[in-house]
Amino acid sequence: MYDDSSIGTLATRLRAEVARLRTGDRLPSSRALTEQYKVSPVTVSRALSTLAAEGLIVTRPGNGTFVADRPVRSAAAPDFGWQAVALGDRTVDATGISAMMPVAPEGMIALSGGYLHASLQPARALAAAASRAVHRPSSWERPPVSGIPGLREWFARCVGPDIAPGDVLVASGGQAALSASLRALLAPGAPLLVESPTYPGVLVAARAAGFHPVGVPLDADGVRPDLLAEAFSMTGARVFYCQPTYHNPTGTVLSAQRRAQVLSVARAAGAFVIEDDYARHLAISPGPPPLATLDRDGTVVHLTSLTKVTAPSMRIAAVIARGPVAERIRATQVVDSFFPARPLQETALELVSSPSWPRHLGAVRTALRRRRDTLAAAVARELPGVSATTPSGGLHLWLRFPYGLDEVALAEAATRHGVLVSAGRPSFPAEPPAPYLRLSYSMAASEAELTEGVRRLAQAL
Ligand SMILES: Cc1ncc(COP(=O)(O)O)c(C=O)c1O
Q1: Which atom of ligand 1 is nearest the CA belonging to 114?
Q2: Quick one: how far is CA 176 from the chain centroid?
Q3: What residues flank ligand 1, with Cβ below 6 Å?
Q4: Which of 3.40.50.1820, 1.10.10.10, 3.90.1150.10, 3.30.460.10 would CATH assign to domain 102-114+358-460?
Q5: 334-378 tens-digit pLDDT
Q6: Cβ contacts of residue 247 below 8 Å, gap of 6+?
Q7: Cα 224 to ligand 1 centre (Å)
Q8: Given 26, 232, 250, 303, which is the most exposed site by the fewest CB atoms within 10 A?
């Protein structure tokens, strides 16, 4: 049995145990705790994650759980009250993003999050690339502010034959590229059109900078050009952010006909289109060429990132833009952070130039296909009445539940049952039309975990 009270009781007992131990001492294994306290593994896992969130313990996967460093406290607790007054009423709400980066405690299955599980990452090739890169003294010199030439050439080649290396700005990950592009293109208070639903990270970045996201609905072929035109004329927006290929969270691919329509609607409105091509290397079936390859007059600002297909800390991405907007985005990045760290740029270039790179891409594609199929089969079996997408790329299934279900409560119940899933609500700029959950097939340790995760979700439901 496990419920909130048994988790709370165990957490209290473990706190007392931790207080008796010294920094760095190892706690008994989860199995030993299960037996010692006569509780379920999920209760142990939840109680440990409560203590981890309080900073009392740290879990080192494969190694165990240890007592964390205790902060040295002065006798009088500091009074931070003045800061609330000084900071005023502006807020930066990162919950939409933090919810995407949960730490799965031992025993918990992760069907949330948007990166590759460690077993799918090119760990050896990355280590070799990093070692070659960091041992070259020149890697620690200041790079050209737009990025090292070899990497700019590689990004340009990936996007299309008409893209020049000079159009590429290397950035520190997709989120930084997105945030800098938005701030370069929009003035505070401006509307920003986004697909509805969309990537929660664009909503939090836009709101933090004082922009107003306005949703334009998608259907199975991607964003609806008729409604996009209406939204441009209603709001006077000058920027539309979209993910035409393997859209997060729905997996939709914008149809060929609509690609041309979206560009002409934006062109007629005198607006930019930010194309977030975050999942280009996560294709299960090949997708259409990027919107940027159809663009003749600098309408499209194209974003692409290496983190998704390698590892979350390979924080190298690119912005591809032409005309004065390119200089505006470059200047915004220089003002923010000068340039991305050169050792990481050199590592990225070593990695994508190594013979193991195409092998890695092939292995990821095969693994993602199998994982997607396993997860989709488990959903069809365990969750009758729930409709799910079968994406041709990306990392997620998008599940639609019957009206009336509280998907946030379901996601919380799922956590109590030992599986992390993402509620759909943070993906919508306004009220969602129905309850949705997003399930990732890339974060679990194995296909067996995907199946077990859906079984736990069905129990929670
Ligand atoms: C659609 C989309 N764009 C951009 C990002 C940012 O990724 P990163 O900063 O790791 O490149 C994400 C991450 O989840 C995403 O899903």
Answers
A1: 14
A2: 12
A3: 100, 114, 173-175, 178, 199, 201, 243, 248, 276, 278, 305, 307, 312, 317
A4: 3.90.1150.10
A5: 999 999 999 999 999 999 999 999 999 999 999 999 999 999 999
A6: 195, 218, 222, 253, 254, 394
A7: 23
A8: 26
